[in-house]
Structures are given as C-alpha cells and as structure tokens.
Amino acid sequence: MQLNTKRKSTRRIYVGSVPIGGGAPIAVQSMTNTDTRDVSSTVDQIKRLAEAGCEIVRLAIPDQAAATAFREINSLTNVPLIADIHFDHRLALAALDAGANGLRINPGNIGDREAVRKVVKASKDLNVPIRIGVNAGSLQKEIQLKHGRPSSEAMVESALMHVELLESLGFDRIKISLKSSNVINTIKAYELLSEEVDYPLHLGVTEAGTLISGTVKSAIGIGSLLSKGIGDTFRVSLTRDPVEEVRVAYEILRALDLRHRGPEIISCPTCGRCEIDLFGLVDRVERALSGIKSSPKIAIMGCVVNGPGEAREADIGIAGGRGQGILFKKGKVLKKVPENQLADILIKEVKGLVKLQEA
Length: 359
Description:
five-stranded mixed β-sheet; 19% strand; eight-stranded parallel β-sheet; alpha/beta
C-alpha cells in the first residue's frame, strides 16, 4: 500500500485553540472514563492525557450534575474540552454555558427540530463546533429498515441527513464521525462520505475492544484511511486507561510518518539466542522515557553479534549478551556495559541526546 501524502482538502474549524481540517496537523483526541461528576478524578485524568499528548478531551454529560461539574473541570484544565450529549438538548445548552469548546451530538436523538435549533443557535453565538456522531448501533429506525442493516451506506445517509438539518439552520462549523465496530464498514463509510462533503472528519473504530484487539482494529481502520489522505482528527477507542489510547494514536501517526511524538523504540522479538531479560529491559526504558516529547530512535536488542547491524538506523541503542552488553550509536559500538547497567546507561544517554536536540 502506497501512502497518499496528499490529504483531502477540508474546511478549517477550531476546537478551542486546536485547528481541525484545512491542512492542520491531525489532532489526537481521547475521552475520560471517570465519572464527570467527580471533578478531582476527572481533572487528574485530563492532566495525564495532556501529558501524554492528547490535544482534545471529550467528557460524557449524562445529567445536569455532570453539566454543573463540567464548568469547574473546565476552569481547572487547559485542554479544549468537548461535551458528549445524548437525548437531552438542555444538557447541550448547559455544557455550552459551562464553556464547552465543542459538542458531540446526534442531532436526531436530542429532541425535535426546535430543540436542535436552540443548540445550533447557542453554538453559533459562541463559535463552538458540533460533531455529528453517527454510530452503527444507533441509526434511525427508518434508515435501518431501508438498508436492512447498519451498512456503510446507511451510516453515510444518516450523516448527510444530519448535515442537511444543521445547514438548514444556518450552521456549518461541523465535523463528522461514522463509527462502527466493523473495520471494513468503517473504512468504506468514511471513503463514501469523503466524496460527498468537505467537512473535517473525525476517525475512529468504536467499541474496538481490549488493548491488543482494539489496537489492531484501530491501526487498520484509522491507519488505512489516513494513508489515503482521509481524516483530520481521531480517537483510538480501547477498553483501557485512555492514556493508552493516546500512545497508540501517536504510534499510528508515526508509522505513517504523519506526526512524531516521543521516542521510537526498536526492539527484537527475541529468539533462542537471547540471553538477557529483554522484555523487562524494554519495559523499564519505555517507562523511564515516557514523558519525552522529541522522537529519537532507540534500539534495544537481544543479540550482541547482530543487534547493532540490524538497528544501524537507530540514534542510540544497546545490545545484550550473557552478563554484559554494548552501547552503540548509528550501528557503531561505543563501549561494553555490564548487563545490570544497560538500562541506566541507555536512559542517561537518551536524555543527554534529547537535551542536545532540544537545545
């Protein structure tokens, strides 16, 4: 598959200070899984997400108490916040009043046309964008009956119906998502919609699953679309700490050479020649370097003989053997190191390299 480096041209909107579409960098989003009414826990999680590189955070607003807490949360964080609303347009209005930088709604389930009009007017007055969130599991009954199943075409029809509704009310600060747990349906739906509209698209595979299955589904679904130039922002959905969603998101962007954040670790899968605890070594180094924003390429190899050559493109690396290892840069050996010092030496060298890069 050849990467399409030319991105589809879309309109530019802003979520707070973060540009979406119009050639802006592809923005990484996540969603809190705390109880929004628990201000302290939610603020703590938002701060951890921001430290991991999350640029926009979405919060569920299930009731008025959550909408009230949203105001305090917003005052305690610097990350643009999106309010996720279902079924009650009054919660959307309350969230806007509390300072939401964006709304995620399904216009078809928050009330009648008058209710939607009120939300649209408030959003327009405050210059706040609305994401039309179409989910395969909650399509309108008439569309379900027409298509017989939540197909890609059905999701696109639902999205266009909602776009038409907002446009008829004079609103165009729109982004759209079409989410399904079926990767193939998701890819096809976004491809079809991309041909119909120039609004920015929010990518995602919903209910993707656990760390492994969710990462695979998201990497294939989101990565496939990004490789074709489709998509302006996205969330990786995992049944996990949302910080892991952000880490996976940046690895997808790195793999496609679209954005780079944090060290890239190259490590071998191990084989019968490996005579050190490579798994533990990689885990320790990865944790120690997790806060670094720049992106040096680091190699952690389990074979002294082949390691440096196999990872010659790495900025810096180590390769371990029985009781000792070597430190190397760009494939050239610098010195031998006792095995119990390999992690410390590598962490120190990487931090020194980062200082030079950021100076």
